[in-house]
Specification:
By secondary structure, this protein is α+β, with helices and mostly antiparallel strands. It is 43% helix and 38% strand. The chain has 3 helices and 5 strands. It has helices spanning 14-32, 69-72, 75-90; strands at residues 2-9, 35-39, 42-47, 50-57, 60-67. Strands 1-5-4-3-2 form a 5-stranded antiparallel β-sheet. Pfam families: PHA_gran_rgn. InterPro entries: PHA_gran_rgn.
Length: 91
């Protein structure tokens, strides 16, 4: 298992940040067939080989994920894609 832990600052309102994260969730569902669900301020996502969440914090989001064996080999690429999408959606 390999862990990803990314914190990304933003200047959006809580509602706008939640909307942006919902867009990210939609892309995750389309591209990677993950299931998602909101629990308070955390959007949880899961599928075979990955499980994690995107937590809304004041002025930031935190993405934590546990990668299974096969995805662990691609950790760098997964982290880069997460950071790219966060920058695109949250600025």
């Amino acid at each position: 298992m390999s862990t990803i832990d990314i914190r990304h600052a933003h200047s959006l309102s809580e509602d706008n940040a939640r909307s942006a994260i919902a867009e990210v969730a939609q892309k995750l569902q389309e591209r990677f067939d993950v299931t998602t669900r909101w629990e308070g301020q955390v959007l949880h996502f899961a599928r075979s080989g990955v499980e994690g969440g995107i937590e809304l914090l004041p002025g930031a989001v935190r993405v934590k994920a546990e990668l299974g064996f096969l995805l662990s080999a691609m950790k760098g690429m997964v982290e880069s894609e997460i950071q790219r999408v966060l920058a695109e959606k949250l600025g």
